[in-house]
Amino acid sequence: QPQWNDRVRKVECVLSFDTPESPNGLFVSMENFQGYGADYVNLDHTRSGNPLYLNIKWKKVPKEDDAMKTDEKEAAPTKMAIGVEGGFDVEGDKFDYEKTNYLAVMPEKVLIPLPQPEVFPRLTQIFESPTPNIQLHPVCDV
Predict the structure, then answer these.
(1) Residue 80 clears pLDDT 90, i.e. is over it
(2) Model-wide pTM > 0.90
(3) H or E stretch including 113?
């Protein structure tokens, strides 16, 4: 069972290959921190009775950098190789991610955008903190 100060990094459903990049995102159980795709979150809710999930959605957005366009034209591959001079460059970041988080309330799957400092002050603290592991008390006033 996870503890209140454990780090959580969820990027894939435990039952499928859904990720935060999937159309409906990934639903992370607030009870056991397991990730579920949209097709499986109702199954977990029925099994566990847990009504709260964190819905994580990442949208890939192509970079529109002029420098990147220039670099791509200048760095056209001349060899059939990957990651070497004259070959295909795989190091460059060509995308940014728009990351959104929602509090999902089951079984209706109501999505509440996060952070909402006026409604959920502790959750706002978690999402806006520069450190991934916030020291909160086991009983919080959310």
Answers:
(1) no
(2) no
(3) strand 110-114
